[in-house]
Specification:
Strand content: 5-15%
Helix content: 40-55%
Number of helices: 14
Oligomer: single chain
Largest sheet: 5 strands, parallel
Distance between the termini: 53 Å
Structural class: alpha/beta
Shape: globular
Number of strands: 8
Mean pLDDT: 96
Order of helices and strands: EHEHHEHEHEEHEHHEHHHHHH
Length: about 300
């Protein structure tokens, strides 16, 4: 049995915490929203402040939004890394630039703490089921130290290298495709509406045809239902696709399709949709074409 703390109890982090707890490990959950912490403790999560529990942790799983938040958890005021015992592991799950992951690994190792560059994919549902895909890179010791957490939370672990950075590079490739697929799904669905194809018929037919994708099958039903409860929000994509374009720029690689998708998410955020489900990018197309999506007046 390991002692684990999850930092970030959003839709993904909460599911990860539940999966680790269900596997029988002592599990602490921390979040900026006290109600999330209270909820997790009511379900069996262990109590205690970060300062009280840090030295007992075998693993700290960081499931926050971005690089800045990851660094704040690890090395900011009250950061956990100086408090962890030597040999503990940080499993960092946010989408971040590869160079940032390499920097965090070096700084953790200076404290005798392992660092696993471990971006995740699969959505909130798979997080709660312990069935995520993990794109991981790090030392053999880091993989070993994170073994209990990986077993509890993941269906597939891709071991991508013996140093941080490779996991984040692969996640950038995934996010390029995922963001483009969501924007393209929204474009295709609303284009279909101009031709008399209703959103529900779009999902019924295209999900069984060659034009489908995992993102289409997962997100288009949200539009059909008119339910934009944020399982993955619009605001994630300007950040993630921005990382993709920054990496592309550093590699002198042109990524015009990514850039086009990014503009649609920026437009959605500009419409005040940043905290809605990322399928709400369809509202950008609907507004421009004067279409009424399900649930819209």
């Amino acid at each position: 049995m390991s002692t684990v703390a999850i930092f970030g109890l959003g839709s993904m982090g909460y599911g990860i915490a539940q999966s680790i707890l269900r596997a029988g490990h002592v599990t602490h959950g921390f979040d900026m929203v006290p109600a999330q912490v209270d909820r997790f403790q009511a379900e069996g999560g262990s109590a205690g402040t970060i300062a009280e529990v840090a030295s007992s942790l075998d693993a700290a799983v960081v499931v926050v939004l971005n690089a800045a938040q990851t660094e704040a958890v690890l090395f900011g005021e009250g950061g956990i890394v100086p408090l962890l015992a030597r040999g503990a592991v940080v499993m960092a799950c946010a989408t971040v630039p590869p160079e940032f992951a390499r920097d965090m690994e070096a700084r953790c190792l200076a404290h005798g703490v392992h660092y696993l560059d471990a971006p995740i994919s699969g959505g909130a549902g798979k997080a709660a089921q312990g069935a995520l895909s993990v794109m991981a890179s790090g030392t053999k010791a880091a993989f070993a130290a994170a073994g209990d957490v990986l077993a509890a939370t993941s269906e597939t672990v891709f071991e991508l290298g013996d140093a941080a950075g490779a996991g984040s590079a692969m996640k950038a490739v995934n996010q390029l495709l995922a963001g483009v697929h969501i924007a393209t799904m929204a474009e295709a669905l609303t284009f279909g509406m101009t031709q008399g194809v209703t959103p529900d018929k779009f999902v019924e037919v295209i999900s069984k045809c060659a034009g489908s994708s995992w993102m289409l099958e997962n997100r288009a039903p949200h539009i059909v239902a008119g339910d934009y409860t944020p399982l993955s929000s619009v605001n994630i994509w300007p950040k993630d696709l921005g990382i993709v374009l920054d990496i592309a720029k550093s590699a002198q690689f042109s990524a015009p399709i990514t850039a086009a998708a990014l503009q649609q998410f920026i437009a959605a955020a500009g419409m005040g949709l940043g905290h809605e489900d990322d399928s709400a990018v369809a509202k950008v197309y609907a507004r421009n074409a004067q279409l009424a999506l399900p649930g819209m007046d």
